[in-house]
């Protein structure tokens, strides 16, 4: 069996584009993959097109060797665009291998540890009484791991530019998270995603405004380029960190794991280099008693790949899902993906079909074509750029 064709199929689903890759073989078996570099879809598509000549004629069963060749055969190795492209390719190759052998992907990864995958829900309710209402609704329906969203007092200035002042969010967010913990008690797992919008000093100020034990995790409070910055923040707070959704290789995870900077690895199989790379990171995390808390903001293909990963490792905590009583972003379109992982409240069942266990309607996808994603950059009131 050899690879005959590689195609990129960008399609708009729910609120964002999904970059789907299909790899065909000469035996009629094909695999589906997905890239996770949102808002950079055209760059990823270009990288996949660049890789295609290296893939045609190759044995799709040799996914590990293909990964090494794509990564190491150029002088300028790595980078988020290249590994996002490699992630989609690697996931598709695993799909092919599973289908060719007649087994679900988790069997290729060592077999499953669990029959269903625990999930966490997100509420984007504004900081205020509605936040507490949303969390109580989730608790009533069986969700016990809940992520909140920081207070985002965004506004437009006279030039139509989106204004966001990070420090103005700190007080209100800390106040209402304290109120939330008081309202729901000690048992639910509560976290907040700050989407790397703070500096070290701002993040420390935020953490220090809440009583001990208010949060079970703080997700991405600052940017990740400098591990030493996270180490400085680590010394100023005892709240566990959840970091890694942007990491593009095992090497980027290295300091965060080895130095004990993160307590939950927010690994994204569609960014880190696919399942080949994700399994290596998972084993590394296991050796350091770090659980996976996978990033999963995309569609059914990324979700299925992550479910197989989560099933096949011992150190999985909770998987992100963007479908719950308090959030529905339309990413799991059942007309477009008629076969996908089955969700039952705060859990996803592990599929037993060969490969990933996902089917994709390409004809329908053609009518939901890529939409140019012009992100509105955030500015402070003085006109300077701040983190999105």
Quote the beta fraction. 15-25%
- Using DSSP, what is the number of strands? 17
Helix content: 25-40%
Give the domain tally.
2
Shape: globular
Give the SSE order as H and E letters. Answer: EEEHHHHEHEEEHEHEHEHEHHEHEEEEHE
Q: At the fourth CATH level, what is the homologous superfamily of the largest domain?
A: Enolase-like C-terminal domain
Low-confidence stretches: none
The level 1 CATH classification of the largest domain is Alpha Beta
Question: Could you report the average pLDDT, rounded to the nearest whole number?
Answer: 95
* CATH topology title of the largest domain: TIM Barrel
In DSSP terms, counting alpha (H) and pi (I) runs of 4 or more, how many helices? 13
Rg is: 21 Å
Looking at the overall shape, the CATH architecture of the largest domain is: Alpha-Beta Barrel
Based on helices, strands and strand pairing, what is the structural class? alpha/beta
Give a nutshell description of this structure.
The chain is α/β, with parallel strands linked by helices and 388 residues long. It has helices at 41-55, 63-72, 80-101, 105-108, 129-140, 167-184, 200-208, 227-234, 250-258, 269-272, 274-287, 300-312, 362-366; strands spanning 3-13, 16-25, 30-35, 116-123, 145-149, 155-156, 162-163, 189-193, 217-219, 241-243, 264-265, 291-292, 319-320, 323-324, 327-328, 347-349, 378-379.
């Amino acid at each position: 069996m050899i690879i005959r064709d590689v195609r990129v199929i960008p399609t708009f689903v729910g609120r964002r584009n999904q970059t789907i890759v299909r790899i065909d073989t000469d035996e009629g078996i094909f695999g589906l993959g997905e890239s996770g570099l949102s808002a950079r879809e055209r760059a990823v598509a270009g990288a996949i097109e660049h890789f295609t000549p290296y893939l045609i004629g190759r044995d799709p069963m040799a996914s590990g060797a293909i990964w090494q060749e794509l990564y190491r055969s150029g002088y300028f190795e790595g980078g988020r665009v290249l590994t996002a492209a490699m992630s989609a390719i690697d996931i598709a190759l695993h799909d092919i291998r599973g289908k060719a052998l007649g087994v679900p992907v988790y069997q290729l990864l060592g077999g499953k540890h669990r029959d269903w995958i625990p999930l966490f829900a997100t509420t984007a309710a504004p900081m205020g009484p509605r936040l507490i209402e949303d969390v109580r609704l989730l608790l009533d329906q069986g969700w016990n791991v809940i992520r909140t969203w920081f207070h985002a007092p965004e506004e437009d200035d006279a030039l139509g530019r989106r204004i966001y002042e990070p420090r103005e969010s700190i007080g209100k967010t800390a106040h209402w998270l304290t109120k939330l913990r008081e309202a729901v008690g000690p048992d639910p797992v509560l976290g907040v995603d700050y989407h790397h919008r703070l500096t070290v000093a701002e993040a420390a100020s935020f953490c220090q405004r809440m009583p001990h034990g208010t949060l079970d995790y703080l997700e991405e409070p600052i940017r990740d380029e400098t591990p030493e910055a996270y180490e400085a923040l680590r010394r100023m707070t005892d709240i566990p960190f959840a970091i890694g959704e942007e990491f593009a290789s095992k090497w980027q995870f290295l300091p965060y794991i080895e130095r004990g900077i993160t307590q939950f690895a927010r690994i994204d199989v569609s960014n880190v280099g696919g399942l080949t790379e994700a399994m290596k990171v998972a084993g590394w995390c296991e050796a350091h008693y770090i659980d996976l808390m996978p990033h999963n903001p995309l569609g059914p293909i990324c979700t299925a790949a992550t479910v197989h990963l989560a099933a096949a490792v011992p150190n999985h905590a909770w998987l992100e899902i963007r479908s719950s009583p308090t959030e529905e972003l339309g990413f799991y379109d059942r007309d477009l993906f008629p076969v996908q992982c089955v969700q039952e409240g705060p859990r996803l069942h592990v599929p037993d079909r060969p490969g990933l266990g996902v089917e994709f309607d390409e004809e329908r996808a053609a009518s939901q074509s890529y939409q140019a994603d012009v992100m509105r950059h955030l500015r402070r009131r003085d006109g300077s750029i701040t983190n999105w």
